[in-house]
Amino acid sequence: MPSAEQQPGFDSLLLENFNQVLSYLGRLTGDLAVAHRLSEETFDHVSRYYRKGRPPQQARALLFLVATGRARDHLKKGDRRSIWQRFFSRPRGPLVEFTEEDAKGLGTDTSQRALSTLDFGDRVVLLLHDYCGLDYEEVARAAGIGRTSVPRDLDRARHDFKQAYDYIRF
């Protein structure tokens, strides 16, 4: 990445938001290694605006917009079935050992498993607002939806998340 001398506002954007973007992408994708790679790509993309001397006005919203796009592209390329679907769809005998992939899925916390049941759009809105603390305007810009649909989408996502969480927990 370019140095702070080349990008006076970018270094503060990076310091203030890197952990939050990394955590957001980790929750969105369910894989920390992928999230780290995607967050680096996100900051690299946003740094181009600073290198060209055109820092964005709503840099934080742009950051999450780019991160969401990168995660969407990554998830479209991978296996769309959840770890649970892949695990339970394979025939298993009583003495078959768990694979590393199975162990990774079984170690996932309850909230992450509940998040993975949501549609991608609902997951994005829920994480951006409730987990990252973006306001409705920033969520709308980052998710690529209208501002007036954010409360409705957020309510639906919260309702679906609560149902999935309660089901998984009990």
Please provide a written account of the structure.
Helices cover 71% and strands 0% of the residues. The chain starts with 9 loop residues before the first helix and ends with a helix. It is globular. The chain contains 9 helices and no strands. Mean pLDDT is 81; it is low at 1-6 and 83-99. By secondary structure, it is mainly α.
Rounded to the nearest angstrom, the radius of gyration is 18 Å
Structural class: mainly alpha
Tell me the series of helices and strands, N- to C-terminal.
Answer: HHHHHHHHH
| Shape assignment | globular
Assess the beta-strand content as a share of residues: under 5%
Most strands sheet: none
Say how many strands there are. 0
Q: What's the N-to-C terminus distance?
A: 46 Å
Mean pLDDT: 81
Low-confidence stretches: 1-6, 83-99
What is the helix content? over 70%
Tally of helical runs: 9
How would you briefly describe this protein structure?
This protein is 71% helix and 0% strand.
Walk me through the topology.
Layout: H1 10-29, H2 32-51, H3 59-77, H4 83-89, H5 100-106, H6 110-116, H7 120-131, H8 136-143, H9 150-169
Helix pairs in contact: 1-2, 1-3, 2-3, 3-8, 6-9, 7-8, 7-9
Which descriptors apply to this entry?
single chain, 170 residues, mainly alpha, disordered N terminus
